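Task: encode each sequence below as structure tokens.

Item 1
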Amino acid sequence: MSRRGFLKRLGIGAGVTGLALAGCDSSSKKISSEQTALAEIPTDKMTYRTNPKTGDKVSILGYGCMRWPTIPSGEKEGEDVIDQETVNRLVDTAIAHGVNYFDTSPAYCKGRSEHATGIALSRHPRDSYFIATKMSNFAPQTWNREASIGIYRNSLKELQTNYIDYMLLHAIGVGNGMEEFRARYIDNGILDFLLTEREAGRIRNLGFSYHGDIAVFDWALTNHDRYKWDFVQIQLNYLDWKHAKALNPRNTDGEYLYGELEKRGIPAVIMEPLLGGRLSNVPDHIATRLKQRAPENSVASWAFRYAGSHPDVLTVLSGMTYMEHLEDNLRTYCPLVPLTEEETQFLYDTADLMVQYPTVACNDCKYCMPCPYGIDIPAILLHYNKCVNQGNVTESRQSENYAKARRAFLVGYDRSVPKLRQASHCIGCNQCSPHCPQSIDIPKELYRIDSYVEALKQGTEIT
């Protein structure tokens, strides 16, 4: 579809002003922040959902601790450490405004998330928050019983607690599907061990998070009578509701995942409500569409309202690295105003438009890192997606905006990704793809992006 035709379908004139695109870039983000900064965030309006098993009142906004802020370590160039002081401030602000669910993992932040989260939370009464963490035994050398139990014991130590409120089998369905699932949890007796820990009260709720092979998800739910899952964590957002499989054949539509949990009365914990930021950094024309509908609200707030509007959702996770992210989400959920049927359809129509943008399904989870050859995989894919959204990926040298798009892509690429960490250094070892929850063929995408970059540099025809 041509740009003119796309704009016509959106109902937007070609002369859209920059102000109408508030929320699309750094300058407009400042405008949006200034508009909302005048409204004080209430501390007593958080929306809560009730855990049907325990009666826990869980905040609809959950804090995802995958992307804690970092600062340079000062010891070695290029190395960073978690900014504990900022983490403490973020946690304090969240708790002060009613957030009480904190989701972490031994795998997050290069293995440092649980430690930082434990420090921040331990400064508050233990009964004022719920801790969720995971059995993240991804590496084959951790599949034996002793190593996996060691991961669990270390989580208790790092989180400075003697019990876990919400314990998950981490990302069932990834890798080799049922074969890997059985090796990680069944054959070694680890699932039976966790069930015993639940009986002893050291785990209050036991569930799993799902990515990948739908056969594993279906098997786990088929055995619900045996394991009595207390909750399940799924990827759900208005784009993935009907388009997840179309965007990536290995993924499963959110409509099916949520529906299977709803049938069994299992509460859903939602991850990727923003698709790793892709539903906040949307194409310019999509941002205009959302801002015209609700000028006072952020683009991201639509996605969070959507996720929270499903009645069987216990909490919606957000990896809030910066205070402005936290404050924006607090405004959305203090209290949550559920979407109307008409607003929900508006988002589904928006999703139909978004699938026309050929972005890579990267959620910036960094499970693919570190690359043994130093390639910054997430930065490469996110830069490419940004340029797609901004109309700076051209189909041909004859494209109307070729010169502008060429410069924007190349200059932005060098600024976003150091030359020694760019896609040209990929040798196709494929150590990354098996760890990707979105099942991206990462070497293939890096090769495609590198070929595109070379065509731009040489001024040759784009293929």
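Item 2
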Amino acid sequence: MNILVVNLILFTPEKGVIPRMGSIKDTMIHSLCSGLVKIGNKVTLAASEEYRPSSNEDYDFDLKFFKSKYPSLFKPSLIPYPAGLREFLLKHGKNYDLIISSEVFSMATLIVSRVCPEKLIVWQEMSMHQRKFFKLPSKFWHNFILKSFMNKIKLIVPRSDYAKEFIKKYSVAVSEDIVEHGIDIDKFRLSDGKKRQFISSSQLIYRKNIEGIILKFKQFHDISKYADVKLLIAGRGEMESKLKSMVGDMNLSEYVDFLGFIPQKDLNVYIRESMGFLVNTRQDLNIVSIPESIVSGTPVVTNSVPSSINYIRDNKLGIVKDDWGADELVAIVDNNEVYVQACKKYRNELTNIGVAQKFMHIWSKIN
């Protein structure tokens, strides 16, 4: 099949600032496109020009970038308006068998739904209204734009149970099948060798609540039986200095290592050697690091904020508990092999090839 994947925002902006990246090979959407290619499809990825990588790497799929129109109104960091996408679809849309577009609340998805609705699957991540301007733009979009101008969409495929519950309030064209983020198993490999360490990987910003993880780790560290276990913190961000000072003040410098930003292949080494991956976020949807960890055979300890908690809980891939603490870390260490085996068993459900096959199965059922 010839597939067009439309995903305008390739990286997560922070406070409206789009990061300048050299490659898109560490992104979620690269994993999807690569998975679709690996099962025999020809793929083109359409994205916003503002997210074009700075290096000229080779990819196993085509790339098409569209500059954002009216950036003061349609901010490229939030809801870009892709100039030329409509004209591109009018000219080339007939060449594609399937179009996968990210999010209902998207100018790109609106454009595709007006030109090629019969070929369109919308991959829905949002499970709540965006908070900008008191949620009014999102509520207007879902209650009016979606129902009046996007009502010919072939199907909306949610990425989580939360996303399905949310979008079903506004559309009847919602799949019962859920397709999560897929992980490239060429980068995230398994390892049977575990070190006495935990890992956290994210931006070092307030929303990720890394300081909360450090406090919980201190409670765990104070139990003499586990005093040798280390905590690795991967990532960079505005709170890095504050977090390092916090670790020093708590006399944990010997047991907490800050790794900085690490490419996916290198990060996988640390993840697959760890006994658990720790999440304590204040606000997030799908955290890609969670399936990356499970695919690596490493269980997850998380609060109930991420939308992936149901499959973690249902398949015993770790522990889901609000205000988790030392007891949960003890349980992961003492029962590590049980959790690791559960992750290995579930692994194929989260690979990019498995996700690509799910899309093909869903498409075949509705055609």
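Check on item 2: The chain has a mean pLDDT of 94. DSSP finds 13 helices and twelve strands in the chain.
End of task.
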